Amino acid sequence: MAKRKTKYVCQECGYESAKWMGKCPSCNSWNTMVEEIEASAVRGRGSFSSGTQTVSKPESITSIESQKEPRITTSMKEFNRVLGGGIVLGSLVLIGGDPGIGKSTLLLQISSQLAGKEVPVLYVSGEESTRQTKLRADRLGIKEDLLYVLSETNLFDIGKQIEEVRPSFVVIDSIQTIFKEEVTSAPGSVSQVRECTVELMKIAKSNGIPIFIVGHVTKEGAIAGPRLLEHMVDAVLYFEGERHHTYRILRGVKNRFGSTNEMGIFEMKEEGLREVLNPSEIFLEERSEGTAGSTVVASMEGTRPVLVEIQALISPTSFGNPRRTATGIDHNRVPLLMAVLEKRVGLMLQNQDAYIKVAGGVKLDEPAIDLALAVSIASSFRDQPTNPDDIFVGEVGLTGEIRRVSRIEQRVQEAAKLGFKRVICPKNNLDGWSYPKGIQVIGVSTVQEALEVGIIR
Ligand SMILES: Nc1ncnc2c1ncn2[C@@H]1O[C@H](COP(=O)(O)OP(=O)(O)OP(=O)(O)O)[C@@H](O)[C@H]1O
Ligand SMILES: [Mg+2]
Fold first, then answer.
1. Atom of ligand 1 nearest to the CA of 99
2. What is the pLDDT of residues 262-308, one digit of tens each?
3. Ligand 1, pocket-test mutation among 103, 138, 140, 273, most atoms within 8 A of CB
4. What is the architecture, at CATH level 2, of domain 282-454?
5. How far is CA 137 from the centre of its chain?
6. What is the domain partition of the chain in residue ranges?
7. What CATH number is given for 71-277 in this structure?
8. Are 279 and 289 within 8 A, CB to CB?
9. Could you give the angle at the alpha carbon of 243 between the alpha carbons of 242 and 248, nearest 5°?
10. What is the C-alpha separation between 400 and 339, in angstroms, rounded?
């Protein structure tokens, strides 16, 4: 018998090596190399979609007929928007999210809505039995005949069922449970996930069926499996939410057919997910408007803008040394900004305690939050509130100047989307882009100016 060849594959990035290593030389992560048996040269039952591909020839770009990609729309407006206006035929979409956040619920609801519109749907669950899926469907009030449920993990058999049922929409819940026979490693390993995704992509493209794949999320919050997975699919969506809240956010991280600035907000209820059409209210819900010391900043979290409230409490020191504490931001920024406010604006802060908090337990680490922080401190010190419809963005320099920030357009768009009326931002950021409708963008060049615009006397 021939010796079985093995290789070590990094479960983070897919790097392959003949030897085991403690640290992956490609992505520098520790203890991620896992032994996998190399795929044998003998093919198994064969690739499901082989033979359906045609040989393509290069064409001149002008000779290609231009057409809008055909889309199917669901009755969930928020969902359509995140996808850029509906589900594109033949697209492969990955949905990631923490355990129990509601991925299966969302996709089952979408499936039922489509089935209700005479679109045959195949819902493949590798994690739950058909009876379990039925239980959830009963809770959600789903009774569509055209919604077919399959509990299966073998990709070949799934492919066969797709050919038989001829659905116009397929859900695979989840990619980590599906396996391909020819690949010898366990389901969920890098090779399995990669191979299965490639196969699903072929099925999607050659039949024009949109396929949604559920992906698990690692401790760090990335979709489990290689980064490669995100490159292969047409769109990547994240379904997120706070453990203690019923609200869920669906965000596009990548989309080949639309913008990734969109987000959809849902509320988890007993009878399933309900769209929230007025999201700004949720974010403002817990904010005490019109109180001194509170501002909202549009901060970038990776490539996405998030709107967060920054609170400051400034009160006279009763002991010798004033206290400066900060949660959610680098605490070195606080004395620095207080010194700038003291020297450039003339606020007497040296005998004041300062407590800073980023609401909601978020951590912010970019300089663009400086301005909001400075305005919060000044507002609390003077006991004068800021306008609840304002957003502050900008880096503060040591001379009190407001410096340019990156991705201003995205931040302003997010602010506009959530119903804010004014953005106070660096003057240098004003040119070269167009503002969204319904929002006023005010450029300021010093902290003093920002305080004059932002604080209500
Ligand atoms: N009776 C109920 N009333 C309200 N909410 C419920 C009820 N039953 C379940 N849920 C919500 O649904 C969530 C589970 O949803 P779902 O199974 O779709 O999540 P998932 O993301 O698919 O999880 P997994 O990662 O385990 O597949 C629960 O965490 C809970 O918030
Ligand atoms: Mg699930």
1. 25
2. 778 788 888 999 987 765 566 667 787 788 999 999 987 655 677 88
3. 103
4. 2-Layer Sandwich (3.30)
5. 26
6. 6-37, 71-277, 282-454
7. 3.40.50.300
8. no
9. 45
10. 10
